[in-house]
Amino acid sequence: MLQTITALTPVSILEQFEKYLLSDFKRAKHFLTNVNPDLLEEISRKKAVATFRHATIHTPAYQHFLSHHKINPRSIITIDDFNRFVPHTDKENYIKKFSYEDRCQDGHLPRRGNVDESGGTSGIATNWIHDFSEENTLLKAVDFEFNYIFDGKNKNYFVISAWSSGPWATGVKFCELMEHVALVKNTSTDAKDIINTLKMFGPKRNYLIGAYPPFIKNLLEENKDSIPWKKYNIDLVTGGEGVTLDWVHYVRNLLKPGAKIISSYGASDVDIGVGFETPLAFYIRELFSKNEAMRHAIFGRDDIPMFFQYNPTMHYIQEVLSAEGKHEFVITLLDRNASLAKIKYNLHDEGRKFTYNELLKILNIYEKGSTERFLKINQGEILHLPFLCIFGRSDGTLSFDGANVFPHQIERGIMRNKELSGKTNRFKIEKKYDKKHNVEFHVHVELKKTHKPHEKLKQKYHKVILDELLDSNPDYKESYTYNKTLTPKINLYNFDHPLFAQDQGKAKNIYIVKN
């Protein structure tokens, strides 16, 4: 009945209802922990069609894009029409083809708002324009997530923004949004400032540090003699790139027992807050890590993706297959006030999408008992939101004989070895060719300041990384079995070597060496 009513309700009324819910945390939480998940999906579908129609009227670039693909906007009436016939957009076929003005609403830049950049993981940064009004919805979402995950209203956090400063979206938005819900200091990636701030304000406060994963790990490791981390109440929020479960457990062990480490999923291209790691999402990730049968049955691989939940009334997401047979997803930003319309935008990140009911059904098949216990213990805390499972960010893989190697697989091998995890600062992977045009797989490792390269250490890295790839990457194992030249060639470097120093000031680690 509710789904039928929703289908007949104007989108403007649904949007007012959403604002009413998100304006009060307790009200929003009660709704999201009790709502029928199918109702949220119905709202998402309805808003997707409305957002598409709005873009066809107000965005010149999108009008040209549809015309080029011979799509008559008037023929797109239902969500099935939208899913089947509307082409995907991405950086290549849309962003790079049209001017900034043409991609903005009504063909001009907004009078108020901000411009930020993507982090340039692929090596090339892109500018993204946001109207001031877009922040209203995002702020309410951040307020909800902050209170739901960290109990922000009751714990009185001091927030340290340690994201890279500059025009990059995460650092800019994090400060802008968090200062509405907590006291914020923007230290950027200045470790000394962070340490001095913690000492100045003392260990009795609750701290939330936001930063990219490599910086967090280095901050905790390299300053363990300067500050007693386990005496401070510090929680972490990170994003921008994936982290392994081993990374999470390792970093948590450096902090006071009970510390929360939460990952978020987003992209400057679409929205910095697409998905967030709820306790249920992290619990499910750990279940998949322990259940090989479930992992292979659902994903057909041994890799363990990151799990996030997302609000379908803010983003309509479809899972699609790329031309190479890779599972990707396209995202429609459900905000008609957005300066840049994002309609079926493909980040080319590899992943899967599940509704709440779909994933719970899978868990009831493979992990029924443990899932029921978790849901019972956390009754009243489970959000009935759908899931995104992320294997890797775009431009984050190299292919060898058809086998994709992901940076997080290299990281996982290193993190599982206590000796190497303590000596590694950063790493990169590279695909090269010898004089006979045979492919070579290089792993470049920058050591920490107190360590120097030597042959035994190089052999140790080789064994650890090769063992991890053979154990976790069946495609690589098959290729390696028939072609031993694909063995990783380890190159060790002193700290601040030019290969890595060139990345100083960039928002994220650059894991791929491009020729």
Protein model, in words:
With 515 residues, the chain is α/β, with parallel strands linked by helices. 43% of the residues lie in helices and 21% in strands. The protein is built from 23 helices and 20 strands. Strands 4-3-5-6-7-8-9-14-13 form a 9-stranded mixed sheet. The chain has a 4-stranded mixed sheet with strand order 19-18-17-20. A hairpin with a 5-residue loop joins strand 17 (424-433) and strand 18 (439-447). The protein is globular and about 70 Å long. The protein starts with a helix and ends with a strand. The mean pLDDT is 89.
How are the SSEs ordered, and which strands pair?
Blueprint: H1 2-8, H2 11-22, H3 25-32, H4 37-58, H5 60-68, H6 79-85, H7 91-95, H8 100-103, E1 113-117, E2 127-131, H9 134-150, H10 152-155, E3 157-161, H11 169-178, E4 183-186, H12 191-201, E5 206-211, H13 213-222, E6 233-238, H14 245-252, E7 261-267, E8 271-276, H15 279-290, H16 292-299, E9 306-310, E10 315-321, E11 327-333, E12 345-346, E13 350-354, H17 356-366, H18 368-377, E14 387-392, E15 398-400, E16 403-405, H19 407-415, H20 418-423, E17 424-433, E18 439-447, H21 455-472, H22 474-482, E19 488-493, H23 498-501, E20 512-513
Parallel strand pairs: 3-4, 3-5, 5-6, 6-7, 17-20, 18-19
Antiparallel strand pairs: 1-2, 7-8, 8-9, 9-14, 10-11, 11-12, 13-14, 15-16, 17-18
Helix pairs in contact: 1-4, 4-5, 17-18, 19-21, 21-22
